[in-house]
Amino acid sequence: MDMAAHKGHSRANAGLFIGIAIAAGAAVAFALINGGAPLSAGFYLPDWINWVRITPSMSGLLALGLVGLLVGIVGTVVSLMTPARKTPVKRTPAKTVVPTPAPAVAAAPVAVPEAAETPAPVAQLVADNTRKASLRFEAPVAAAAPPAPVSAAPEPEAPTQPLPSAEIIPFRPEPTPETAEVVPPEPVAEATEPATIAEPAVDETPAISGDPIAAALLHAGPEARTEPEAAPDINSVIHSAMRFIDRPDPTSVTSVEEVHAVRTQEVDSDAPPRAAQTESLSERMHEAPVGSTAEYKALSEALADNNTFEDATPLLDSVVLETTPAEAVEAREPAPDSEPAVESDVASLNATDPQAEIARALTAALTHWPDATRDIAEGELHVRLSQLYHDNALQSREAFARIAQGDLSGGAAVMAQEAQAFADARLPEKAAELWRIYGALHMGRDDTAAMHAYEQVSALDTADGNIHMYLIHRYRMANETDKMLPVIGRALGVVTDRDTRLDLLTQYAELTQAGGHLGHTAQALEELSRIRGELSAEDPDNLQKRSAHAIALAKQAQVRELLGEGPKAAPLYQHAHRVFAELSARVPDHAGLKAMAENARRDAERLSA
Question: How much is the pLDDT for 32?
Fold first, then answer.
């Protein structure tokens, strides 16, 4: 207690000084940033003296902030090192209670019939019939329990009847008349031993349908779950799908063993499959949509491996990819003349050699390319077709089958529809992958469609720097500067190479200045000046790098002046003047360096006056 009080007192004082230090630091930062302090000049005193003379208010705020920062730091250290006066804490002694001896009991034995003994309270599972599937676990109070009826003495080892199981049985048994089950009471232990309650064993037998507890447990509502569900795996998905497909009639099948017997009879018999299986599965999926694309793939693979469906009916139209409001999606029907061939190819993909199928599709697709670009497109197209083949989604398989038949337009249309569905479901990575395949399918034979696909990739996957640089190169060749600016912005977010960033920053500054976005221009020129300064510092004897640094500083100063930020522009002009003057001194016969140094000096003096 004393140590806690001491630490609290010290921390309170330290917190006050820390607050003073933070406020002073904020004042210093505000004065340096808003006042346009010549930070780039370092410890060059003439620049700082000029700044103090130009902005007396900000320089005074800087001085006050430095003093406050010093006071806060010193006060924090002193308050943490100085011990505080300890306050004694009074403790009240604990009162001891002397137990009162119990009154003596007559030694004469008293005969009490066993039937009149009060049984030990047994925990029971009570169902509240006013609200379905609302279960509570109650223990009866011994004082409020009514006396048990007089009956024969129970046997000591009499087994108790098991309570209904809390496990939800997948099939309802036949209804039986309600019967009242009497649970014999357990023998009461001696008075000297504490009473113990035996935990009833949980039986896995089906519950009686007439029992209200069983009815509440079998209620298909969210409140009927008494335990958290286990993490879903592929086996549970397969079992759930098979149960939805081959769900037996509850009036004829009452146990799991009979379900397996019915399935065995259907497999061994020559009867055609039930036509209502696919419809019931579709209805079930509309009732409880699949939560993600991975679960949908696992379900479709499980159904395909078990040969559940005779035809390859697409299931994606009835599946919601994410937990978003369900929207009606029109089912796309292929042309009547190509439907049998597509279904047969989709069904035979798993039974053939993958490399042979990919090679066959590549050969069929390359016949649509001109001779000049066929060899260039072959490598990229082979990679993308392999990626499409190994995608287990039904629409991806249909697109691959169409491409293998030579129907490139049909396959591209299927991929575009699937990519749009992924984009609407907020899955940009999957949509970008499909647009990459779409672009490879048109590159070299339809550049308009290929550029459209790669523009979609650039917008969906902003981390793909190669696509950004490719689009910038194509836009530069076509002189489409209006499309270049957003792509350069995405590329600057991922490109780290210094030379590449210099090129991108130069273009970005020119385009934003031409469009009137001077704020973005100033940011680009600020980073450009920093990189130019690093390059000139690495090679100080290189006059070209040093002059490029000075030019970047002068351009940044001009943009700051156009924005009305004179205090920020003046130090930049001064820095550019120093670099130009040094270069002019090293090359005295260069008239351009001398003129630029003189212009920078005049601009700095004009803004400082």
Answer: 84
CA distances (Å), origin 95, targets 98, 99, 584: 10, 13, 95
- What are the tens digits of pLDDT across the range 226-272? 444 444 444 444 444 444 344 444 444 444 455 445 445 544 545 44
pTM of the model: 0.44
Could you write out the three-class secondary structure of 196-244?
A: CCCCCCECCCCCCCCCHHHHHHCCCCHHHCCCCCCCCCHHHHHHHHHHH
Q: Are the beta carbons of 164 and 125 closer than 8 angstroms?
A: yes
Q: Is the CATH code 1.10.10.60 the one for domain 498-608?
A: no
According to DSSP, the β-strands at 124-127 and 135-138 are antiparallel
Lowest mean pLDDT among 19-23, 181-185, 417-421: 181-185
Distance CA 511, CA 520 (A): 10
Element (H, E) at 135: strand 135-138
Domain boundaries along the sequence of the chain: 2-81, 337-461, 498-608
- Give the H/E segment covering residue 137: strand 135-138
Q: Strand, coil or helix: what is 127?
A: strand
Distance CA(523)–CA(520), nearest Å, equals: 5
